[in-house]
Structures are given as C-alpha cells and as structure tokens.
Amino acid sequence: MKNVLLLAFTLTVLFVLNSCSDTKDPDEPNEQELITTLKITFVDSANTSIVRTFQYRDPDGDGGNPAVQFDTIKLAPSKTYVASIVLLDESKTPADSISNEVREEGTDHQFFFTISGVNVTTSYEDVDDNGNPLGLESRWKTNTVGNGTAQIVLKHQPGVKAAAPGDQSLGDTDIELNFPLVIE
Amino acid sequence: MRDSASNQPLPFASIYIESLEKGAIADSMGAFALTGICKGTYSFRVSHLDCETKYFSLEIKDNGKYDFRLAHSHHSLGQVVVTEEKKHLVTTQTVTAINAQQLEQTSGTSLGEALKQVAGMSSIQTGTTISKPVIHGLHSNRILILNNGIRQEGQQWGSEHAPEVDPFIADNISIIKGASSVRYGADAIGGVILVEPRHLRSKPGYGLELNFGGFSNGLQGVFSGMVEGNPIKLAPFSWRVQGTMKRAGNLRAPDYYLKNTGYSELDFSTALGWRKERYGMELFYSQFNTRIGILSASHIGNLTDLQQAFESPVPLETSGFSYTIGRPYQQVQHHLLKANAYWRVGNAGRINAVFGLQHNIRQEYDKHKPLNDSLAALNLPELLYKITTYTTDLVWEHTAWGPVKGQIGISGTTQANVFDGRFFIPNFRNFGGGIFMIERFVKLKYELEAGLRYDYKYLQVFKKEKGVVYQFDNRFQNISANVGAIIKPRTTWDIHVNIAKAWRAPAVNELYSNGLHHGAASIEIGDSSLTTEKAYNAAISFNLHPLKDKLHLELAAYYTYIQDFIYAQPTLPPTLTIRGAFPTFQYVRANADFKGLDLTAEYQVWKGLHLKETATLLWAWNYSINDYLILMPSQRFGHQLQYHFDDKGFWSHGFVGMTLTNVLEQKRVPDNSDFAPPPSTYFLLDFEAGTHVKLGKQSLHLSLSIYNLLNKSYREYLDRFRYYADQPGINAAIRIKIPINLT
After folding, report:
1. Which residues lie across from B281 on neighbouring strands?
2. How far apart are CA B152 and CA B143, in angstroms?
3. What distances in angstroms separate CA B534 from CA B451, B506, B561, B592, one per listed residue?
4. Is the model's pLDDT at A14 over the cut of 60?
5. What is the pLDDT of residues A27-39, one digit of tens each?
6. Closest Cα to residue A72, out of A179, A184, A178?
7. What is the rounded distance in angstroms from the CA atom of residue A120 to the CA atom of residue B203?
8. ipTM of the complex model
9. Which of residues 67-126 of A touch B (CB under 8 A)?
10. What is the SS3 assignment for B12?
11. Looking at the partner chain, which of B268, B417, B525 has a beta carbon nearest the beta carbon of A23?
C-alpha cells in the first residue's frame, strides 16, 4: 500500500518536472524519414556522354508547401537510355539518400513504370536478392516523337512482393509520380 | 437524510408529507428544511434515486432536527432494466444516468462502446479498437468528459484519439445531453459525460472487489481489482487502490481476421480521503496506459491505394490470430492528479476547491519503420505529443436564500503542448478563465433554473521555420447562458425544458493543422482566421411512469443551431505529393442545425417480462452548402426483451434476454462528399443472461453475453475504417464480479 502511494507520488513529481518543457521554443518538424526528391538520370546507351536528369522535389514533404520542382522528362526519339533513380530526403541537412536503403531492402520494394500517350517501352536492369526486378536501374526505348506521361511508382511490399514481372496492386505506395513525357 | 448502511448523506433525496401535500428536496449534502408544519404526527415519504422509497411516521413536536435513513435498494442492484429517468444530477437539462449495475453489463469495453446503448448516444470509431462517445451527433472537442470532476484534457481534437478513461473507475456515469457550458465551461456545446468513481468508504472495515472478463473474439482477458478501507480507529480517513489490466489479440470479422487489432491496457488509481463534518479533502491519482493496434489495411499510400481498398471485398491485408501489436499502433499514457477540499462555512454554505493536473503523452507509430536500419532500430514514434494541463475550480454553494439555491464559481486552466516528429499541430499554450453563477428556484411541483457564465481564452501558438520561431496569438471570449424549468405536477410524470446558449473556441487543429493525417490518409489544412462557434440549444423532455412502475417513458426532443460550425470540407484538387494524390480537407465554417428525438420506453409486458424500446433519431443540415451535414450518426433503434427470474435459494437477480439493434443506412449525406457510399442498414442480435449466486456469505455476480449472435458481416458509417474492413463477428463474453466486504 505504502509502496503504491510512494510510486504514485514519485511518478507524479517526475512528470511534473518533465512537463516543464519548452513550448515556446519548438523543434522544427522532424520527420524521421521522408522521401522529398526523386531524381532520374537517363544515359544514352549509344553515347554515354549524353546525360539527362529530371527531378521532382518537395523539400518540406507531403502537405505544407507544394513541390518546388516537377520536371518534364524530355528524351530523343529512337534511342535507348539506361535510367537510374536516386531518392533523397532533402528535409535533412545534409540531404539523406534513401535509394541505398531501397536497394538493401530490395526484396520488399519494386518500381513500376507505366508509359501512356507515346510509344516508349521500359524494362528492368537490376534485381533484388531473390532475383526479382527492382527498378532503381531501368532501360527506356523511345520510338517516334510525341507527348505523353511516364508514371513512376515505388511500391513497398514487405513479405508479399511477387516474382517477375511483379504485381503493382500489392503493398503500399511510397512514390507515385506522373511525369509529363516529351519525345522530341 | 442519510444512507442507513454507510451513513453517507443522500444528496437530492426528496421528502414529502402526503397529508399536507408539502415536501422538500435535500441539497447536495442531504440536508433539507421543511417549514410551516403544525405539531402532530405525519407520514413522511422519503425517496432517493438509489434507494427504495420508505415511509416514516413521525411525531413533530417542535422545531428541530430530524434524521431520516434510507437503505440502498437491494432490489434494484443487479437489475438490468435501465432506469434512465433516474437523475443523479438535478438540472433542467436532459440527463441519463448509468449506474453501477448497468456498467457491470458492459464491463471490459471502452467508454465509447459502453455509452452507445443509451438513447441519443452513438460512437465515432477508428476501427474496432478506438471509439469515442457522440452526443446528439457532436463529439471530440464539442463534448466534455469529466473524469472524477476533472475535465479530461488530452488531444481530444482527433477522432482517432479515444478518451483515456478506465470505465472500471466509474461507479456511475451521467450524460448531460445538450449544451452545458454554464457549469462545466465553454466547449461543452454538445453535452457532458460525468464519470464518477464510487464514494470513498465511510463504513469502518475493508472492501475488496474483483472483476474478471473473458471475450471469445480477440481472446480478450480483463481483470480489474479494487481494495478500499476505512480504519475503525481513524474514522475520517479512507483509502482506495484500484487497477485494471486488459489484453486482446486480433479480432475476427465473420470472414477474416482483422490484422493488427490487438490492444493492451494497464491502469491504476489511488484515492485518499479525510472527511469531517465541516470540512474534508481528497487526493486522487490515476494513470492510464494503452497500446492500441491499428488495422494494417487502413494505412494506405494514396488515392490509388484507397480506391483499391474500396474495391476489394476483403481487406488487402489479413492475418491469423495473434496477440502481437505491430505497426501501425498508438501508445498513450495519461496521468491525472486531483486534490479537492470542501469547507462548510457557517450559514454561508459550502466551498469546494478542486485542483487538477494532467499529463498526456501520445505516441503514434506509422506502418513502416524507417528504411534506414539504425533509425529503425530506435523504433521512435513518427509523431509525439506531450500536453500538460492544470485546472482549478472554486465553487461556493450558498445556503438556500428562501426557495433559491445556487452556486457561484470561478475556474482557470493553463495548458502547454509540445510535439516532436512529423508536423501536424504546432506547440501551443492555452490560458483560460471563467466565472459563473447558477441559481435554482425550487418548489415541490416545479423548479426554475437560470445560469450565466463568462469565459476568456488565450491561445499562443509557436512554430519554427528555418530556425526562426513565429508566435501567433488568438483571443476568444464569450458568454454562455441557460434557463430551464422542471414541471412535475404529479409523481407520475414530469417535463424538463431548457434553453441554452454556448460557445466553443476553435481548437488548435482547426486553426493550425497542416499536414498528412496518416490514420486518415488525408491532408488537413487549418484556417487561423476561424472564429468561435456559437450554439443555441432548446430541449424538452417528457418523462412518464404511470401504472405503478409498469411503464417508463422518456421522450426528448431537441433543436440546436450552431453558427460558424467548424468542419473539415473536402477540397479539390487533391494535394499532389511524391506519394501521389491525397484527398485534402480544409477547415471551414458553416451554419448548421441539428434536430433530434430520443426515445426510451420500458414496459412490463407480463410478470417478470420486460420490453424496452429505444430510438435515436437525428437530422442535421448544413446551411452553407444547403445540404445535409456530413458524418452524422444515422437513425438507430434498439429492441430489448428480458425475463427476470424470481429470487430462489442461492440464486438472485437472474435474468435472460435478447437485444436487437437496428441501424439504418445514412442516406442524409451530401452528394459526392465521400470516397465510398455509406454502408447499408444492419441488424444485430445480442444475447444476455446473468445471475447472482450466494455461496455462504459471499455473493458472486455471473453473466454471459453473446454479441453479434448471428455472426453478421456489417459496416458502420461512423467508423472511419468502414472503407477497409467489416466490424467484428460473434463475440461471447463471460463476466465474474466478486464483491468482498470485511468489517
């Protein structure tokens, strides 16, 4: 009985002391891990000196201010590009790279590319530890000129990732971006 | 007037001299005065809501003090008939009291679920594990929960933030339906829920109470124990220690398990009291700890995922049974410290001082751990709030000025909130003060009541952006008022009429939220220019109990008009993020009204056979869009048939019964306002049986309940997870209560 009371008293004192916190000096919002930026770099497989980079950047994360950069992917016709994706958390200083973690946990992740409006075909260039496609590296083959969209989706599929070619309907969406795509 | 067993005063007991048609109602300390009575012998009828009415024949010789003692009604203990016309609180408003034996029938469930059965009440849910009470369509910041006299202060604004109250603490729960701001403070525009622990023991000796509960669905186990004492050698002193443990695993809908819907709870409380006739004080401390699993399938990525979830007949993630609570989950701790004291000041009356301190820590964990292994190993919450609240109340209940009784009081609050992690609401400080006066003019056949209150609120908000702290100040003030009457021309019926004006300052989320609400998969944006909500409420309730208690009828009608009602309105286009599009809600104001009817009727059809009908009807309209108001409870009906056995040998209070609950499809919703149409009408059948067994001197309360007996699949409109999964299926509950008394 006495112990319970003593415990109650101690707890009370502790939380009273603990609660004298700094309301007036708030911390900046600090999301533990955020994907703010997707950077996709296209390298012409015939001439590796031709490099094109496109980005989506929303440095303060979901909500708040809208994205500061949302590029149109511009590629040349009748070419084959090797595309690599880098994911960043730019809300931290220095910016944190998330793509390494996606690669490490490749068996739980997969990128999906859906092209509409223009004739561009995509294929995977990398695999996870189980030999299933991942998509941090991909191959894009362009044909005639035109305008369309390139949807890039990253699915988090812990424990449920399907064998090649994968299943986009499973898991949760970590990224879903519809880049305007121009072949010119 | 006192309780014959415990010697406790009987507040608001009534005394009546039949031959003179004269009577009085006791004050909160059981004291009463009858004047102008000639010498002679009279028959006094003394009644109290907890006791059986008793007749006393007494010779009045001279002016003097007379003591009346009533025994607690043993007949009513354990009876399951809900006697809602009984009032613990004397007010001209519509009040429903739920007593200990009714609470016993719902023990092991949350507060929100326990109150759902009452006419006028419903609950807003976030899956099966989070439930908040709704009074006449209003909830969260619009109703107050007074836990042991202290206004519950956590992060009430969120509909997925359940009240941190252990229902096992309560000895009775009273629900005031309609604006009750004058006594309880601004914000209470929807109503007030008073959770009242039992009085500290005043009879020398020790008491022990053990409660066990086992539920088949989720294999839930509940244990609650209480020890109390009043030492013979130290009469003014009494104490109590109480604690509750709950553990549940994944619940099962008729067709599948609901993944990650387990929860655990550990609560304890302790109370110390020192009571003398002229003064007394009490110290109370309680701690509430819970970890609540959140349905895995409800944490979705974006609009595309949401669309997929609707279209799938079964949740996109199901599982087997497990007690493991994985991500996403909430972990909440709530401390409450209360100190109160009263003095009886000569002829001036009674002064009551209450001090409360609350500290609430809420941690919310997202579905996915960070990808970064070292970050993930820390297992930090994605969202953390700490809020500390101090409340002080000083109330003077003055002695009757002729037929006028009343109270005058002041109250003050300070509050500080700190967040860590993802931004949703900012840090803030809140200062509030109020002053009020309520006077009652009490006659035997009628009572009049009038109250007035003024409140001032000052909200300081602090936000840091790029190293700079910005401060925003908001000041709100307004008056609350009410007038009402109770008319009771005969003992068989009475009418309560009440008109009230109340207001509510916008909450911090309505003003400053800005971000992704994970549980809701939506982006919510506050508006710092929002002004106070003003509510005007008129209510009338009619209580009839003729035919010598064979029929009880309570019909309550209300109309509430809320000016500048704040709600989250879907806005287009959806917010585009790296994760795709998210539905976006903006806090806006509108003028709205609420019309409703609550009906409770109990009828003794035949010896021992009782029929009870309840209906909760509500129509709510949004004048700004000239359409129905979104997210309002749909019409619900309850039909209960119970048979009460006669006591025999060791057996007493035996009953068996069935309840049919019928909830209609909510058709009164604005077009294109929701992601999916409201779920269809459902019927639920529950079975209940119980008895008390006497083993020697020891009695044992046993009961068996089977909820959703027909294992029906259904979804509820006010459940935010209606998009993803069905409600739980059949659930059998066994409850055992062992009250032990040692003198």
Report:
1. B274, B341
2. 10
3. 17, 11, 8, 11
4. no
5. 777 777 788 999 9
6. A179
7. 86
8. 0.79
9. 67, 96, 98, 101-102, 104-105
10. coil
11. B417
